[in-house]
Design goal:
- It is a multi-pass membrane protein.
- The structure is a single chain.
- This protein has one domain (3-118): Up-down Bundle (Rhopdopsin 7-helix transmembrane proteins).
- It is built from four helices and two strands; from the N terminus they run E-E-H-H-H-H.
- The chain has helices at 25-54, 61-79, 81-90, 97-118; strands at 3-10, 16-23.
- The protein has a two-stranded antiparallel sheet with strand order 1-2.
- The longest helix has 30 residues, at 25-54.
- The chain is elongated and about 55 Å long.
- The chain starts with a strand and ends with a helix.
Length: 121
């Protein structure tokens, strides 16, 4: 079952980008799973961060590492999941020139910090 959807992307200039998006049932499933992953990543890590910051009896060395890990996971979910999904669906970057330059840099920094925290050498 395929659906044809037309999207128009307007930028600040007078031109607009038109393209057709054909999504299959598998791609809709991937979108739904990414959305669920993003919501759990976002709110779950926010809850851990709030709990570890405001509950003073949880302040310890181990929980400092957990806080750092939670912040890293939060940034990973914030900068990697939505932009990677949209790039895979639309097959082009639709967020403008400045974000086109900024997002890969932020994704690289987040992934670097994520591995640095998980695999401390």
């Amino acid at each position: 079952m395929e659906s044809n959807e037309n999207f128009t992307l307007n930028s600040n200039s007078s031109s607009s980008t038109n393209f057709q998006l054909n999504l299959t049932a598998i791609e809709y499933t991937i979108i739904i799973l990414h959305a669920i992953l993003f919501v759990f990543s976002f709110f779950g890590n926010i809850l851990v961060i709030i709990t570890l910051v405001y509950c003073r009896r949880l302040w310890s060395t181990v929980n400092a590492f957990l806080l750092n890990l939670s912040i890293s996971d939060f940034l990973l979910g914030l900068f990697c999941i939505p932009f990677t999904l949209s790039g895979n669906i639309f097959k082009q970057f639709i967020f403008g020139y400045y974000l086109c330059k900024l997002v890969p840099f932020l994704q690289g920094k987040v992934i670097h910090n994520f591995f640095k925290i998980h695999f401390q050498f």
